[in-house]
Design a protein that fits this description.
289 residues; mainly beta; Jelly Rolls; 4-stranded mixed beta sheet; 17 strands; rod-shaped
Length: 289
Protein backbone atom coordinates (compact mmCIF):
# COMPACT_ATOMS: atom_id res chain seq x y z
CA UNK A 1 0.00 0.00 0.00
CA UNK A 2 1.26 3.45 -0.84
CA UNK A 3 1.52 5.98 2.04
CA UNK A 4 1.33 9.72 1.59
CA UNK A 5 0.56 13.01 3.29
CA UNK A 6 -2.84 14.61 3.77
CA UNK A 7 -2.92 18.42 4.13
CA UNK A 8 -6.13 20.41 4.18
CA UNK A 9 -7.90 23.31 5.88
CA UNK A 10 -10.78 21.04 6.88
CA UNK A 11 -11.12 17.28 6.96
CA UNK A 12 -14.33 15.32 7.47
CA UNK A 13 -14.16 11.54 7.77
CA UNK A 14 -16.99 9.07 8.37
CA UNK A 15 -15.66 5.63 9.28
CA UNK A 16 -17.11 2.61 7.47
CA UNK A 17 -16.04 0.28 10.25
CA UNK A 18 -12.24 0.24 10.09
CA UNK A 19 -9.86 2.51 12.04
CA UNK A 20 -7.82 5.01 10.07
CA UNK A 21 -5.18 7.31 11.62
CA UNK A 22 -4.46 10.70 10.07
CA UNK A 23 -1.43 12.85 10.82
CA UNK A 24 -2.55 16.36 9.92
CA UNK A 25 0.13 18.80 11.05
CA UNK A 26 -1.01 21.23 8.38
CA UNK A 27 -4.71 20.97 9.16
CA UNK A 28 -4.74 24.33 11.03
CA UNK A 29 -2.75 27.18 9.59
CA UNK A 30 -1.50 30.32 11.27
CA UNK A 31 -4.12 33.06 10.88
CA UNK A 32 -7.07 30.73 10.35
CA UNK A 33 -10.27 30.88 12.40
CA UNK A 34 -10.28 27.99 14.85
CA UNK A 35 -13.32 26.36 16.47
CA UNK A 36 -13.80 23.07 18.23
CA UNK A 37 -13.56 21.35 21.60
CA UNK A 38 -9.82 21.43 22.42
CA UNK A 39 -6.84 23.26 20.92
CA UNK A 40 -3.37 22.70 22.38
CA UNK A 41 -0.01 23.71 21.04
CA UNK A 42 3.21 25.64 21.48
CA UNK A 43 1.91 28.57 19.42
CA UNK A 44 -1.76 29.41 18.86
CA UNK A 45 -2.59 32.61 16.97
CA UNK A 46 -5.41 33.99 14.90
CA UNK A 47 -8.00 36.71 14.46
CA UNK A 48 -10.80 34.82 16.20
CA UNK A 49 -10.55 31.68 18.34
CA UNK A 50 -13.77 30.11 19.68
CA UNK A 51 -13.60 26.92 21.75
CA UNK A 52 -16.38 25.35 23.79
CA UNK A 53 -14.00 23.55 26.17
CA UNK A 54 -10.31 24.45 26.54
CA UNK A 55 -7.32 26.20 24.99
CA UNK A 56 -3.78 25.69 26.28
CA UNK A 57 -0.31 26.43 25.01
CA UNK A 58 3.03 28.11 25.62
CA UNK A 59 2.01 31.24 23.67
CA UNK A 60 -1.50 32.29 22.71
CA UNK A 61 -1.98 35.39 20.55
CA UNK A 62 -4.97 36.81 18.76
CA UNK A 63 -7.54 39.55 18.43
CA UNK A 64 -10.24 37.79 20.45
CA UNK A 65 -10.74 34.54 22.29
CA UNK A 66 -13.90 32.99 23.72
CA UNK A 67 -13.33 29.72 25.51
CA UNK A 68 -14.64 27.75 28.45
CA UNK A 69 -11.14 27.20 29.90
CA UNK A 70 -7.96 29.11 28.97
CA UNK A 71 -4.61 27.92 30.38
CA UNK A 72 -1.33 29.26 29.08
CA UNK A 73 2.16 30.53 29.89
CA UNK A 74 1.63 33.84 28.12
CA UNK A 75 -1.49 35.31 26.56
CA UNK A 76 -1.56 38.49 24.49
CA UNK A 77 -4.78 39.77 22.90
CA UNK A 78 -5.40 43.11 21.23
CA UNK A 79 -9.14 42.98 21.83
CA UNK A 80 -10.95 40.58 24.16
CA UNK A 81 -10.47 37.45 26.26
CA UNK A 82 -13.51 35.76 27.79
CA UNK A 83 -14.38 32.40 29.28
CA UNK A 84 -15.53 30.42 32.29
CA UNK A 85 -11.96 29.97 33.59
CA UNK A 86 -8.89 32.00 32.59
CA UNK A 87 -5.49 31.06 34.06
CA UNK A 88 -1.91 31.86 33.13
CA UNK A 89 1.39 33.38 34.17
CA UNK A 90 0.85 36.57 32.14
CA UNK A 91 -2.33 37.72 30.46
CA UNK A 92 -2.65 40.98 28.54
CA UNK A 93 -5.79 42.12 26.78
CA UNK A 94 -7.90 45.21 26.12
CA UNK A 95 -10.89 43.55 27.76
CA UNK A 96 -10.95 40.52 30.08
CA UNK A 97 -14.18 38.88 31.24
CA UNK A 98 -14.72 35.58 33.01
CA UNK A 99 -16.23 33.83 36.00
CA UNK A 100 -12.85 32.78 37.40
CA UNK A 101 -9.58 34.52 36.50
CA UNK A 102 -6.24 33.55 38.06
CA UNK A 103 -2.58 34.09 37.34
CA UNK A 104 0.56 35.94 38.38
CA UNK A 105 -0.04 39.06 36.29
CA UNK A 106 -3.26 40.17 34.63
CA UNK A 107 -3.43 43.53 32.88
CA UNK A 108 -6.35 45.06 31.02
CA UNK A 109 -7.07 48.51 29.61
CA UNK A 110 -10.80 48.05 30.23
CA UNK A 111 -12.68 45.11 31.65
CA UNK A 112 -15.50 43.74 33.74
CA UNK A 113 -13.76 41.17 35.92
CA UNK A 114 -15.79 38.77 38.07
CA UNK A 115 -14.46 36.51 40.84
CA UNK A 116 -10.70 36.65 40.52
CA UNK A 117 -7.65 35.22 42.26
CA UNK A 118 -4.28 36.63 41.25
CA UNK A 119 -1.10 35.67 43.08
CA UNK A 120 0.84 38.64 41.73
CA UNK A 121 -0.53 41.81 40.18
CA UNK A 122 -3.77 42.94 38.56
CA UNK A 123 -3.99 46.31 36.85
CA UNK A 124 -6.46 48.06 34.59
CA UNK A 125 -8.57 51.13 33.99
CA UNK A 126 -11.72 49.47 35.33
CA UNK A 127 -11.59 46.53 37.74
CA UNK A 128 -15.00 45.25 38.86
CA UNK A 129 -16.30 42.07 40.40
CA UNK A 130 -17.92 40.30 43.32
CA UNK A 131 -14.74 39.23 45.15
CA UNK A 132 -11.02 39.75 44.65
CA UNK A 133 -7.87 38.28 46.19
CA UNK A 134 -4.43 39.41 45.04
CA UNK A 135 -1.11 40.81 46.20
CA UNK A 136 -1.37 44.19 44.47
CA UNK A 137 -4.24 46.01 42.78
CA UNK A 138 -3.50 48.98 40.54
CA UNK A 139 -6.47 50.52 38.78
CA UNK A 140 -7.94 53.87 37.88
CA UNK A 141 -11.31 52.60 39.07
CA UNK A 142 -12.23 49.55 41.14
CA UNK A 143 -15.73 48.45 42.13
CA UNK A 144 -16.43 45.29 44.15
CA UNK A 145 -19.84 44.34 45.52
CA UNK A 146 -18.45 41.97 48.16
CA UNK A 147 -14.81 41.70 49.26
CA UNK A 148 -11.33 42.80 48.27
CA UNK A 149 -8.27 41.31 49.99
CA UNK A 150 -4.53 41.41 49.49
CA UNK A 151 -1.26 42.84 50.80
CA UNK A 152 -1.80 46.48 49.85
CA UNK A 153 -3.95 48.76 47.74
CA UNK A 154 -2.68 52.07 46.42
CA UNK A 155 -4.25 55.31 45.28
CA UNK A 156 -2.96 58.13 43.09
CA UNK A 157 0.69 58.88 43.72
CA UNK A 158 1.40 55.27 44.76
CA UNK A 159 0.03 56.00 48.25
CA UNK A 160 -0.98 52.94 50.27
CA UNK A 161 -4.62 53.30 51.36
CA UNK A 162 -5.39 49.78 52.63
CA UNK A 163 -3.05 47.09 53.97
CA UNK A 164 -3.78 43.40 54.46
CA UNK A 165 -4.36 43.97 58.18
CA UNK A 166 -7.37 46.15 57.36
CA UNK A 167 -5.47 49.33 58.22
CA UNK A 168 -6.98 52.25 56.27
CA UNK A 169 -4.55 55.06 55.54
CA UNK A 170 -5.36 58.58 54.44
CA UNK A 171 -3.19 60.51 51.98
CA UNK A 172 0.21 60.96 53.63
CA UNK A 173 0.22 57.54 55.34
CA UNK A 174 -1.93 58.35 58.39
CA UNK A 175 -3.51 55.22 59.88
CA UNK A 176 -6.80 55.31 61.74
CA UNK A 177 -7.15 53.90 65.29
CA UNK A 178 -8.62 50.37 65.56
CA UNK A 179 -11.64 51.60 67.59
CA UNK A 180 -14.35 54.04 66.53
CA UNK A 181 -13.89 56.33 69.53
CA UNK A 182 -16.67 58.12 71.40
CA UNK A 183 -18.89 61.05 70.60
CA UNK A 184 -17.10 64.40 70.64
CA UNK A 185 -13.57 62.99 70.38
CA UNK A 186 -11.14 64.27 67.78
CA UNK A 187 -8.43 62.50 65.77
CA UNK A 188 -4.85 63.46 66.70
CA UNK A 189 -1.52 62.47 65.16
CA UNK A 190 1.37 60.89 67.06
CA UNK A 191 3.81 62.21 64.47
CA UNK A 192 4.79 58.72 63.30
CA UNK A 193 1.91 57.96 60.91
CA UNK A 194 -0.37 56.67 63.68
CA UNK A 195 -3.36 58.48 65.14
CA UNK A 196 -5.45 58.38 68.31
CA UNK A 197 -8.88 59.50 69.41
CA UNK A 198 -8.65 62.31 71.98
CA UNK A 199 -11.22 64.32 73.89
CA UNK A 200 -11.82 67.67 72.20
CA UNK A 201 -10.31 70.23 74.59
CA UNK A 202 -12.40 72.90 72.92
CA UNK A 203 -15.74 71.20 73.63
CA UNK A 204 -17.85 73.84 75.40
CA UNK A 205 -21.09 73.26 77.29
CA UNK A 206 -23.42 75.90 78.74
CA UNK A 207 -24.62 75.12 82.29
CA UNK A 208 -27.98 76.38 83.53
CA UNK A 209 -28.99 73.46 85.81
CA UNK A 210 -27.06 71.01 88.04
CA UNK A 211 -24.71 68.85 85.98
CA UNK A 212 -21.85 66.36 86.41
CA UNK A 213 -18.83 67.42 84.37
CA UNK A 214 -16.71 65.34 82.00
CA UNK A 215 -12.94 65.46 81.74
CA UNK A 216 -11.65 67.50 78.82
CA UNK A 217 -14.62 69.88 78.54
CA UNK A 218 -15.11 73.56 79.21
CA UNK A 219 -18.22 74.56 81.20
CA UNK A 220 -19.69 78.04 81.12
CA UNK A 221 -22.09 78.58 84.05
CA UNK A 222 -24.81 81.09 83.11
CA UNK A 223 -27.13 80.46 86.09
CA UNK A 224 -26.38 80.03 89.78
CA UNK A 225 -26.22 76.23 90.02
CA UNK A 226 -23.99 73.26 90.94
CA UNK A 227 -21.36 71.62 88.74
CA UNK A 228 -20.20 68.24 90.08
CA UNK A 229 -16.64 67.17 89.21
CA UNK A 230 -16.21 63.83 87.33
CA UNK A 231 -16.38 60.61 89.34
CA UNK A 232 -13.33 58.27 89.55
CA UNK A 233 -10.94 60.69 87.83
CA UNK A 234 -7.51 59.65 86.60
CA UNK A 235 -4.35 61.62 87.21
CA UNK A 236 -4.06 64.24 84.49
CA UNK A 237 -7.81 64.60 83.87
CA UNK A 238 -8.80 68.21 83.49
CA UNK A 239 -11.74 70.50 82.81
CA UNK A 240 -12.35 74.24 82.76
CA UNK A 241 -15.11 76.14 84.60
CA UNK A 242 -16.11 79.72 83.77
CA UNK A 243 -18.71 81.69 85.71
CA UNK A 244 -20.77 84.03 83.53
CA UNK A 245 -23.93 84.00 85.69
CA UNK A 246 -23.35 87.47 87.20
CA UNK A 247 -23.93 85.86 90.63
CA UNK A 248 -21.82 84.19 93.29
CA UNK A 249 -24.32 81.43 94.09
CA UNK A 250 -22.60 78.66 92.09
CA UNK A 251 -21.00 75.55 93.64
CA UNK A 252 -18.29 73.11 92.52
CA UNK A 253 -19.16 69.73 94.08
CA UNK A 254 -15.97 67.69 94.77
CA UNK A 255 -17.77 64.34 94.17
CA UNK A 256 -15.82 62.57 96.91
CA UNK A 257 -12.40 63.86 95.89
CA UNK A 258 -10.43 66.66 97.53
CA UNK A 259 -10.21 70.12 95.98
CA UNK A 260 -6.85 71.77 96.64
CA UNK A 261 -6.29 69.13 99.41
CA UNK A 262 -9.56 70.17 101.09
CA UNK A 263 -12.48 67.83 101.75
CA UNK A 264 -15.05 70.58 101.12
CA UNK A 265 -16.99 71.72 98.09
CA UNK A 266 -15.91 74.93 96.41
CA UNK A 267 -18.23 77.96 96.48
CA UNK A 268 -17.94 80.31 93.52
CA UNK A 269 -17.49 83.74 95.13
CA UNK A 270 -16.38 85.72 92.07
CA UNK A 271 -18.65 86.81 89.23
CA UNK A 272 -15.63 86.54 86.91
CA UNK A 273 -14.49 83.15 88.25
CA UNK A 274 -12.47 81.03 85.80
CA UNK A 275 -10.29 78.02 86.66
CA UNK A 276 -8.65 75.02 85.01
CA UNK A 277 -9.17 71.97 87.25
CA UNK A 278 -6.50 69.24 86.96
CA UNK A 279 -6.70 66.01 88.94
CA UNK A 280 -3.39 65.42 90.69
CA UNK A 281 -4.44 62.45 92.81
CA UNK A 282 -3.58 61.56 96.39
CA UNK A 283 -4.36 64.11 99.07
CA UNK A 284 -4.27 67.01 96.62
CA UNK A 285 -7.19 65.77 94.52
CA UNK A 286 -8.37 68.45 92.08
CA UNK A 287 -6.06 71.45 91.87
CA UNK A 288 -6.83 74.59 89.89
CA UNK A 289 -5.10 77.64 88.58
Amino acid sequence: MTYGTVKAKSLIYQSGGSDIVFTTSGLLRNGDNFSGSVVQGQLISGQTIVLTESVSGALIQGVSLNVTVLSDISGIFTAQVSGQTITGTDLNATNITGNSISGSTIATLTGDIGDLTVTGTISGVNVTGDAGSFSTLTATRGVFTSEVSGNSYKASGNVTVITSSGDVRAYGQLSFPPLVGTSGQILTSNGDGNTNWETDVYAVEIVTTPITGEAGKTYVITEGTTLTLPASPATGNFLTVINRSNTVTGTIDRNGENIMSSGANLTIDDVNFRADFIYYGGSEGWVFI
